[in-house]
Design a protein that fits this description.
Largest interface: A-B, 88 and 94 residues
Oligomer: heterodimer
Distance between the termini of chain A: 14 Å
Shape of chain B: globular
Number of strands of chain B: 10
Helix content of chain B: 40-55%
Largest sheet of chain B: 2 strands, antiparallel
Order of helices and strands of chain B: HHHHEHHHHHHEHEHHEEEEEHHEEHHHH
Structural class of chain A: mainly beta
Radius of gyration of chain A: 31 Å
Strand order of the largest sheet of chain B: 1-3
Structural class of chain B: mainly alpha
Number of strands of chain A: 51
């Protein structure tokens, strides 16, 4: 339904009587009623409205869509189901929630809207991606990302939020098992908008947001910095300037968002066409993002039995990036944000000769203005997707649907490092281009048979076959030593020193059979059985096929005789499900033995060289998740209050691990299936229409508890991984630990015990301070010495619970929405603060340096300034990252009907809103929503959680918007 | 009309099911071991794979060579806030979780694995001896070379001399004794000496020749105290030096100029690094920044810096001190200062691997070729072995004099220092003199630690009167490094750990 649509069939009743009528095709009605009467307007899918007549003779009513009706239809895999018949755990998110504020994509819009779904931004840069976790991360070394199904296209391209009708998140085994070997992490089904017969709708939305960085660090200024360094190095000579580097790199940002759509049709043909444009100027100089897309959905009814349709989508994204979250940021590779924190405030931006200054203390890094202005990185991505389907009603009860879809994703990234930056100065400038082309082809065919065996039984059977083929090409070239910086990366043959080019090709195929059986008895007892049989080319020689079944039972308790008189309860369904889903996990060619090429020089030139790098594993198989879910869907007071609660337990076994081999074999590891991880938890969501009179108030609340635990590791041994930025050399390679019985991503380090005071006894240890004012660590192993045995688990980045709370108010033509979102109990390990506050005089510091230990300031936990201190991961850098954030507050005004009619439009709404303007947190960094080195879909995305280094800050926005319906 | 559509759909359905279920992988652009070895060219490719690992950051690009340098008395730690693993190797308080060992232990075994695979692949071709044995010899040389380094650093270690296709069969093997490892090394080197060619195309020194094998044989015999054989191998190389194009370069500095590295005739076995071309671990070297002056124009880290005594005890008239050390440098603001005014570590720094790295600003990813053996050492081995087995005589003195004569060439001008050896020294003094000559001639070329170990000089050089006093040095423990703890945990049959750890 679109805004401004005239609704036929709305039932109007005079309260307290049986007098009633319905609206006609134009939405008009007439009824006889006393001046003091009350009219009730109700329609399926919309909130019932109670309106006092108050002596009026014409009453126009606008009905609001009912976000939480249990009679609505929910999209599940390969079909739809009434919510009252649903046996699985599925959360629906509607279009209005996805477009409440300008979001770069639908993933960002989903944040805080669905129980059990945790969305985090990986980096605040414009166009950056998001990490989605449904009921926790189910893998360690393989991807934990859910799959997206766009209009039936598995792995299709996610359209912009304005084109989305609804998103359904499938969470438990019963709902997801039909997607088999790729469903262990959950499934998100996206349905785009389609045209409807009878009404033509044209919609225009635009908004403009002013953006500002969400926060800045409190750093030392030039004089304070000079004092601090002089304490370590008395001979230090300051350059005498005073530069606020954060000031120099931040600028006011902006988002301009436009969307225009038209939909309509008749009984024969229906259409939806939409175009969107999203243009973001980033809050750091030199970073921008633009996205332009066109969606076109056409549906045809070709006779009584045949429906055909076509979905086309095209999108271009253009991202101008800057360097952030660098994995190794020494002199050659410092990022703009980390540089703005650590660069000397007593230096200016330019040297007298006009070139950029480089750091005079510590590593001679580039200054942040140089990185922001000079580093060039441009990514252009084009996506095309087409999907054509045909639905044939063979018999009244038997339908056949076939669809063919193809998508092509082309990306090109060009990077240029000019001679004005350290890395480019050494080599005369370096330019590179890397491109990729990913093709995805899918063909789905399935039959659906619906029947009722007598009055009390109904049965639906689904059987189908799917074939999908993926191919991925990449190629790239790099060159160094150019005549001028002006050519950027568009003249690689002009570079005097060419680097070896690269190219690669992989392809894979999935062939699947799937089926589902839905049985219900008297609408009271429901049974669902799902299964899928997947064959994948990625699987090893001996294990090409996999079977994933699931079963669920549900009991519509409200339909029982003993519940008929309990009027408070309008709906009560219990459901329980259990099943197996898979995580494909294995990359193409990964189970094969390999020689890999080696870069070897003979006589000054590269030669062909190769060495054995991996051994075959012919029994390598996918990861399997077994999930149990029990839940209830409850409606009270005629669905005025609806509650959904679920308890789940999911154990993923046969985890892919690089099983360490003894290194003397010449092979470091062999990929094997060994290991188990468990996610269990509780989800609770509540929606209520608190007030339904002229002043309306609706609330939507969801909260999810998830406990992640490693159950089994290879040989029960701890597995260590390191996530530190490479230039922080003092830190050992082990910063994260996987240990049986503890959550994935646990931090590993020393326990900080404060500062040694004059009367303390020093604990001996090579490389540890033994002097007054130095760092004191706890001797965890109690052996009288400080060494690597005193490291222990010092933090857990997984939250105890996450929640979202949205309130909608409306009065006359005004509407107000307030949306809070939060996370509680997650720890953050801040490499940013570690680099700044170690007090070793290697770079700038936060103002905590003013509280450092000195003989006159002994009551502090900041150690003295000491040049010989190594950086070390300890509990001093682990902070509570819990937060509550006002994600969106929006006030809108819809023009009254008479004004709107004069302008010959259906509806006009203007609004102002603000995003991320209030955050309550104890975290001393700028933003508790950080995820350093956590992108991609491998081991890093699962194990590197809650880390903070050099991240592009998120932004607060103030938005003005307008939407017009024609 | 509708029946037609129905038929079309049903036919389409069946077509989509047929012919779509080929799930076998056919990787394009990947190399599979079973089909890899078809010609001798393929064996060469596999052998070159081993060289790529040797010329990588884990071994001679930084970690292994620096570990050997730290261990000796010639190189100390400069910047004491560098990573703890380096300090521990230098200060003799390392444990079995040391991070540098964790880098080079697996790297050496990757080299050995590559060499074993190449040897097995070569044998599988079934070609006649004359055609295939030179390549087998090259693979066996690489294996011997790797185990020679490993056995001197770790002592008893797992000895694998066959290609591995199922690593799990090796999960419980035990260590092999040092004696047996040396037997294997000598067997491989003897085969190599028999079958390797005299020279290669373009006279490259990064592939072993007969002369290379003989030189290493001399070194192995010297290490084992078999001075008679050490002398006969070294003498054989000296007598046949023209077959292999070996000679002492005229100017000592030329040996450490990256632009001349490919043309040197003194190098017997060297590792080729190409400037500005790094691919991950391969071809990546960081020697220049490691030894470079910190916070100066040369952008060094100041980590591998000799103690001041190494410089001050070296006679200033020795040209080799000037080539090996840098005593003044440019600061970032352009002023030229002497070492007492260096910003951080106020003593001379190593120049051998910093002065002429090629086209790079801070010296990383340089163009240096790092020599593991050069002709000067062959002469000194001959001198030491001859003195030990027969006695001090004119021939032994003559070898040392050749080295000294070259050192007297101060960039074109012939000086008087170092003078020729005093004739007729007694054996003990002569040996000490040769060891000193080795220390200076081969300074910072990761030779000194091995000399200290084979001659048990530890107590003397790390004692109070030595160049780098190290009170923690314990001769019963520190001549060997501990095997990585992770290996022993995974395979308890490797117990016991080296004594003292």
């Amino acid at each position: 339904m679109e805004i401004g649509e005239k609704l036929p069939g709305v039932s109007i009743r005079l309260e307290g009587t049986t007098t009633g009528t319905v609206t006609d095709a134009d939405g008009r009605y007439s009824i006889e009623a006393p001046n003091t009467g009350v009219l009730m307007f109700s329609f399926i899918g919309f909130e019932t409205q109670r309106v006092e007549i108050a002596n009026r003779t014409q009453i126009d009513v606008v009905l609001n869509t009912d976000l939480i009706s249990l009679n609505e239809v929910v999209v599940v895999g390969y079909g739809t189901v009434k919510k009252s018949d649903l046996t699985g755990s599925v959360t629906s998110v509607k279009s209005e929630q996805l477009t409440a504020y300008p979001a770069v994509n639908a993933e960002q819009a989903l944040q805080g809207r669905a129980a059990g779904v945790q969305i985090q931004s990986n980096n605040g840069a414009p166009g950056s991606d998001f990490k989605i976790r449904i009921r926790g991360a189910s893998s360690i070394n393989a991807s934990s990302d859910p799959i997206f199904v766009i209009d039936g296209f598995v792995g299709g391209v996610l359209p912009p939020p304005e084109d989305i009708q609804s998103m359904e998140v499938l969470k438990d085994a019963s709902a997801t098992a039909i997607y088999g070997s790729r469903a262990a992490n959950g499934v998100i089904i996206v349905t785009t908008k389609k045209g409807k017969a009878g009404t033509t709708n044209v919609q225009f939305n635009t908004s403009y947001s002013f953006q500002k960085e969400i926060g800045r660090l409190d750093l030392l200024d030039g004089e304070q910095f000079t004092d601090y360094i002089t304490e370590i190095n008395p001979g230090y000579v300051s350059s005498g300037e005073n530069t606020d580097w954060q000031d120099e790199i931040f600028r006011p940002g902006a988002i301009q968002n436009y969307s225009l759509s038209a939909s309509g049709g008749n009984d024969v043909a229906r259409y939806y066409v939409g175009a969107t444009s999203f243009d973001q100027k980033g809050i750091i100089k030199g970073s921008d993002y633009g996205r332009f897309s066109v969606t076109s959905n056409l549906d045809f009814t070709a006779g009584k039995r045949v429906d055909i349709g076509l979905n086309l989508f095209a999108q271009r994204e253009n991202q101008q990036g800057t360097k952030t979250q660098e994995t190794s940021g020494g002199a050659n590779n410092t990022g703009v944000v980390s540089s703005s924190y650590k660069f000397m405030p007593d230096q200016g931006i330019y040297k007298p000769d006009g070139s950029y200054t480089t750091a005079l203390v510590g590593d001679p890094t580039d200054n942040p203005v140089a990185v922001a202005n000079e580093y060039q990185n441009e990514t252009v991505t084009d996506r095309f997707q087409g999907n054509v389907y045909g639905e044939f009603k063979i018999l009244e009860s038997l339908k056949f649907r076939t669809s063919f879809g193809a998508s092509v994703n082309n990306g090109r990234t060009g990077t240029f490092i000019p001679t004005t930056l350290n890395q480019g100065r050494n080599v005369g400038g370096q330019g590179s281009i890397n491109s990729s082309k990913r093709t995805n082809f899918i063909n789905e065919n399935y039959l659906t048979y619906t029947t009722s065996l007598g009055v009390d039984h109904s049965l639906t059977v689904l059987a189908g076959y799917s074939f999908q083929k993926f191919s991925n090409e990449t190629w790239g070239a790099t060159s160094q030593s150019f005549i001028t910086n002006a050519v950027s990366f568009w003249d690689l043959d002009g570079g005097a020193v060419a680097q070896p080019p690269n190219s690669s090709f992989t392809e894979s195929v999935i062939s699947s059979y799937y089926g589902r059986l839905n049985y219900s008895y008297k609408d009271k007892y429901l049974l669902t059985f799902n299964a899928r049989y997947d064959g994948s080319s990625n699987f090893s020689k001996d294990n090409k096929w996999a079977f994933f079944p699931s079963g669920a039972l549900a009991w519509n308790m409200k339909n029982e005789t003993f519940m008929t008189d309990i009027n408070v309860v309008s709906f009560w369904k219990w459901r329980v499900s259990y099943g197996l889903t898979g995580n494909q996990a294995i990359n193409p060619y990964q189970s094969l033995a390999r020689f890999d090429k080696v870069f070897t020089i003979i006589n000054g030139t590269p030669v062909n060289a190769a060495r054995p790098t991996s051994v075959a594993n012919n029994s390598l198989t996918w990861e399997t998740a077994a999930q149990f879910d029990i839940g209830a869907d409850i409606g009270l007071w005629n669905d005025r209050l609806t509650v959904t609660a679920d308890y789940y337990n999911r154990v993923t076994s046969d985890l892919l691990f690089q099983l360490p081999l003894p290194q003397y074999t010449g092979f470091g590891s062999v990929l094997s299936n060994v290991g188990k991880v468990e996610n269990k938890g509780f989800e609770f969501s509540l929606a209520s229409r608190n007030l339904v009179g002229e002043f309306k108030w609706n609330s939507d609340f969801n909260i999810s508890f998830n406990k992640n635990k490693v159950l089994e590791l290879p040989d029960g041994n701890d597995v260590f991984t390191g996530s530190r930025p490479g230039h922080l050399v003092g830190i050992s390679g082990s910063t994260q630990i996987l240990r049986e019985g503890y959550p994935v991503g646990s931090f590993w380090g020393f326990e900080y015990d404060g500062v040694y005071q004059a009367d303390d006894s020093f604990i001996p240890g090579s490389g540890f301070e033994q002097s007054v004012g130095g760092e004191k660590f706890r001797d965890v192993s109690d052996d009288g010495n400080l060494n690597s045995a005193d490291q222990t688990i010092i933090g857990n980045p997984n939250p105890k619970f996450t929640w979202g709370f949205s309130n909608d108010f409306s009065w006359k033509n005004f509407d107000l929405n307030i949306f809070f979102q939060g996370s509680q109990g997650n720890d953050i390990l801040s490499y940013t603060l570690l680099e700044l506050e170690t007090m070793s005089g290697f770079n700038n510091s936060t103002t905590r340096a003013l509280d450092r230990w000195t003989p006159t300031n002994t009551d502090t936990d900041v150690p003295k300034a000491f040049g010989g201190r190594s950086q070390r991961v300890s509990s001093r850098w682990v902070f509570d990252g819990s937060y509550v954030r006002l994600k969106n507050i929006a006030l809108g005004y819809t023009l009254p009907k008479n004004l709107v009619d004069k302008l010959a439009i259906q509806r006009l709404r203007i609004y102002v809103s603000a995003q991320n303007i209030l955050t309550f947190t104890d975290y001393p960094g700028i933003d508790p929503e950080v995820n350093y080195s956590s992108g991609g879909s491998g081991s890093a995305s699962n194990q590197n959680l809650g880390l903070d280094y050099g991240s592009y800050p998120n932004a607060k926005s103030f938005t003005l918007g307008l939407s017009i319906g024609f | 009309m509708k029946n037609k559509i129905l038929r079309i759909f049903i036919i389409g359905f069946f077509f989509s099911v047929i012919g779509c279920a080929d799930l076998d992988e056919n990787p394009v652009g990947l190399l599979a071991p079973e089909t890899f070895f078809k010609t001798t060219k393929d064996v060469e490719v596999a052998i070159f794979g081993a060289y790529g690992v040797i010329a990588s950051e884990s071994l001679f690009g930084r970690h292994f060579s620096c570990a050997l340098m730290f261990r000796s008395d010639m190189v100390d730690i400069g910047n004491r806030s560098t990573s703890a693993e380096r300090i521990q190797i230098n200060d003799f308080n390392m444990d079995d979780r040391n991070g540098m060992v964790a880098r080079f232990w697996p790297a050496w075994y990757r080299v050995i694995n590559a060499a074993n695979a190449a040897e097995a692949g070569a044998i599988s071709l079934g070609l006649p001896e004359e055609e295939i044995n030179p390549l087998i010899a090259e693979a066996r040389f690489i294996r011997a070379f790797s185990y020679y380094h490993m056995v001197r650093v770790f002592g008893e270690i797992p000895y694998i001399d066959f290609a591995v296709s199922d690593p799990l069969t090796l999960a419980t093997i035990s260590k092999t004794s040092e004696d047996d490892i040396y037997i294997g090394i000598l067997a491989d080197l003897e085969f190599a000496k028999q079958w390797l060619p005299d020279t290669y195309a373009s006279d490259v020194r990064t592939r072993p020749t007969k002369g290379t094998a003989a030189s290493y044989l001399a070194s192995v015999h010297l290490t084992q105290g078999d001075f008679a054989n050490a002398y006969s191998e070294a003498k054989w190389v000296i007598d046949h030096k023209d077959d292999f194009n070996y000679k002492l370069e005229d100017d000592f500095q030329d040996l450490f100029r990256s632009d001349m590295a490919d043309d040197l005739q003194e190098t017997i076995f060297t590792f080729d690094f190409l400037g500005q071309q790094s691919q991950g671990d391969y071809n990546t070297d960081y020697m220049a920044p490691m030894v470079g002056v910190r916070n100066a124009a040369e952008l060094g880290f100041g980590v591998s810096v000799p103690s001041l005594l190494v410089y001050t005890s070296w006679n200033e008239l020795d040209y080799r001190r000037k080539v090996s050390f840098t005593d003044s440098t440019f600061l970032t603001n352009g002023t030229w200062v002497g070492y007492p005014d260096f910003p951080n570590e106020k003593r001379p720094h190593i120049a051998k691997w910093r002065r002429y790295p090629g086209v790079t600003g801070d010296g990383r990813i340089s163009d240096y070729n790092y020599p593991d053996f050069r002709y000067a050492e062959v002469l000194l081995i001959a001198a030491e072995a001859l003195a030990e087995s027969v006695g001090v005589n004119a021939e032994a003195e003559g070898y040392v004099n050749q080295v000294r004569a070259r050192a007297r060439n101060w960039a074109g001008t012939v000086t008087a220092f170092p003078a020729d050896v005093t004739p007729g020294m007694n054996k003990t003094d002569f040996i000490n003199m040769v060891l000193e000559e080795r220390r200076l001639e081969l300074a910072f070329e990761w030779k000194r630690w091995y000399d200290i170990k084979r001659r048990d000089l530890g107590a003397a050089v790390f004692g109070p009167g030595g160049l780098e006093p190290r009170p923690e040095f314990d001769a019963s423990r520190d001549y060997l490094m501990p095997l990585p703890a992770s290996e022993l945990i995974m395979n308890p049959n490797l117990e016991p750990q080296n004594p003292g750890y």
